[in-house]
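Inputs:
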Amino acid sequence: MDVARAAGVGKSTVSNVLNGTGRVGEAARRRVLDTIEQLGYQPHQGARSLRSRRTMRLAYLMPPIQLEPTNLIMMQFLQALLTAAAGQHYGVLVVPEAADPSDDIRRLVADRSVDAFVLSELQPADPRAELLHRLGMPFVCFGRTDRRGRLAWVDIDDAAGVADAVAHVIGRGYRRPGYIGYEPRTYWDAEREAGFRAGLAATATATARATDGDGAGVLRLADDATARASIRSFLVSARPDAVLTGSDKIAVIVYGAAAELGLRIGRDLAVVGFDGSVGATLLSPRLTSVVMPVEDIASRVVERAQLLIERGPGDPPGEILPTWLREGQSTTGPAA
Amino acid sequence: MDVARAAGVGKSTVSNVLNGTGRVGEAARRRVLDTIEQLGYQPHQGARSLRSRRTMRLAYLMPPIQLEPTNLIMMQFLQALLTAAAGQHYGVLVVPEAADPSDDIRRLVADRSVDAFVLSELQPADPRAELLHRLGMPFVCFGRTDRRGRLAWVDIDDAAGVADAVAHVIGRGYRRPGYIGYEPRTYWDAEREAGFRAGLAATATATARATDGDGAGVLRLADDATARASIRSFLVSARPDAVLTGSDKIAVIVYGAAAELGLRIGRDLAVVGFDGSVGATLLSPRLTSVVMPVEDIASRVVERAQLLIERGPGDPPGEILPTWLREGQSTTGPAA
DNA sequence: TGCTACTGATGGAAGGTTCCACCAAGTCTA
DNA sequence: TAGACTTGGTGGAACCTTCCATCAGTAGCA
């Protein structure tokens, strides 16, 4: 270690300065820092991780792109995750998730390539989570998991988000809100739909039946191919004057269907999206959407990962972050 | 190394088996492989890179998400890059590109964290490329650079892609094709526009003035905010019956503007996108688009990176891949 | 003074690979 | 059969850190 020689100190002292370990006097610290600056010295990652068993790396299992612009929000999350990790001096190894990711996971763990994993799009009894748990590798999930207890996750309050949106459109004067989401496959499909019903119930009692009973009801989409047609007939038969949706992507399709039916967005039909993806702001009129705070989520995920790495398990398992409503022109108020 | 002991061979032999170096007899090789399998042994990445000066990692500088769904294609590229790299046993460290990425670059290089860099969205005289070149770190660019000579890049034939698209719409019977792109900022903005003119010239001579002279002309967009309005007035004043665009994203805006003007896509106005992003296939009618082969690009990028790492510079600097036209319903033929 | 406790700093060991020089045994050649 | 070459294989050094035991010096205290 030539920095040590140049600074006239022992190599351990340099190491201690760099890692904040041990005791170092002010004079020595200064001298070491100066020579480091001067020589542009950077510790060798490999040697460091070999000895310290820390890589300062996270692995992110990146879900494959489906044929859905939905994933734009996942890209925003990725970006936020990378930035948050960088802020804590972690690098992120992004791993494309194969059909069966277990081999990749096992390799990365045995490899000692990373200190922790980040998972997203959790499924009930997620096999990736099970495997990581078995291997004793720390990991944090974006999205809940139903494993009771130990696992660390960060999620948003899907139900409250939609309920807020219901309150918003009611407040704007719409009277027959409906909900369009997916056939519940994931946790949040169900959660958002439940949020709609809850929001409806809340306003119905609070404002003495501001809405007529169940509103315009709920549409559950089976797949993307038939989505547009289903939405059209829902708009015709249920006659909602406002539509809450399970994602910005669905909102986009609603825009298309409304255009075909000659409905003016905002006036004849309010539309609220979910995600707050940047793409949705390009719609005209601009889409009101329930925004999930990807930056906050990412920060918390990284912080929790760091805690797991440094102190091991022990924190409260889950954590729920609030959403907020970004108002566009798609919910300005019904036609007089 | 307990594998060596378990297999009853020297540790060098295990290393040789693993890396295909040195000479190993068939019997010993079998024995080693068996014990490795049995013990589930994986070499420690840190130790490996410490000694061999190879990390089997690439760094990808990820450009920040602008407010553009354009970037969906960059997400597809990212996915393709990760997959291609994994195929060659490389992991990818994705680094969010800061306003000034030079510190991050320097750190990663001094760190010995990666073997090579991958850059995208190259600019003329790109400072990142300059820096990496100076530091002696191998790197491959997706997109051309104007540094003469040494740099490795992979790109598509933008001009030919648009020219093909011109030929396609002419072949379908449209007679006044126009082009909508951006004010040329990058290499490919200019290239695609040039491809339009070239395509026009080619069909004009080949089919004895199938088109009327310059077609409907060219519109250059300054920014996204005013894009929709500019496009509307272009459609009204220039009266094209077909529009080639510089990106799928512009095509989406054209769809919107056409709807406002009561133009039926495909019949009254043909539209061709550029990128072949998956999102564009969700448009209705489905968008015809010049597809850039992201998987091929990514494979070539990774292969070239590997060559640079293993053999150093020496290969021909650049490499151009062809595009192809994915036909949708946006160019079926003009109204009779 | 003699003992403990603390501070600041040190050199050597260890961590798990790959690389290198070398070796034993067998094969070929003159 | 001596010498050269080939094949299959070996152990030790090196890679660059961090960790640990230890030490010299100083201060505190009875």
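The two ends of chain B are 78 Å apart (CA to CA). Flag for discussion at group meeting.
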